[in-house]
Amino acid sequence: MRLSARNVLSGTVTEIVTGAVTSHVRIDLGGSVVTASITNDAVKELGLAVGGRASAVIKASDVMVGVDD
Predict the structure, then answer these.
(1) Measured distance CA(25)–CA(52) in Å, rounded
(2) For each of the chain's 69 residues, which pLDDT tens digit applies?
(3) Are 13 and 27 spatial neighbours (Cβ–Cβ below 8 Å)?
(4) Which of 15, 46, 12 is nearest to 31 (CA)?
(5) Which of 13, 33, 42, 58 has CB atoms 3.0–4.6 Å from 38's, for a disulfide?
(6) Are strands 7-18 and 22-28 parallel, antiparallel or unpaired?
(7) Residue 55 contacts by C-beta under 8 Å, 6 or more apart in sequence?
(8) Strand 33-39 vs strand 7-18: parallel, antiparallel, or unpaired?
(9) DSSP labels for 4-20?
């Protein structure tokens, strides 16, 4: 897979919660978990399943940083 995005985080799918139109896919990156909201069609087309390998590809022009008061 060749992408222009610089942030590709590979891991294991730990949970897929399917809604009416979209699914929340949780990917364990080795201690940290990222959750993606994608269409149910995309889940099927990608063949995503719990225990399978997947990559979270993050491309954004802005990144926000926050701290607790």
Answers:
(1) 11
(2) 777 777 889 999 999 999 999 999 999 999 999 999 999 999 999 999 999 999 999 887 777 788 998
(3) yes
(4) 12
(5) 42
(6) antiparallel
(7) 1, 8, 9, 10, 11, 27
(8) unpaired
(9) S-SEEEEEEEEEEEE-S
Tokens 């891991």 correspond to: 11
Structure tokens at 6: 């610089």
User: Exposed/middle/buried for 22, CB within 10 Å: 0-12, 13-18, 19+?
Assistant: middle
Secondary structure element (H or E) that encloses residue 46, with its range: helix 40-46
Which position has the token pair 């993606």?
Answer: 36
Q: Report whether 27 contacts 33 (CB < 8 A).
A: yes
pTM metric for this prediction: 0.83
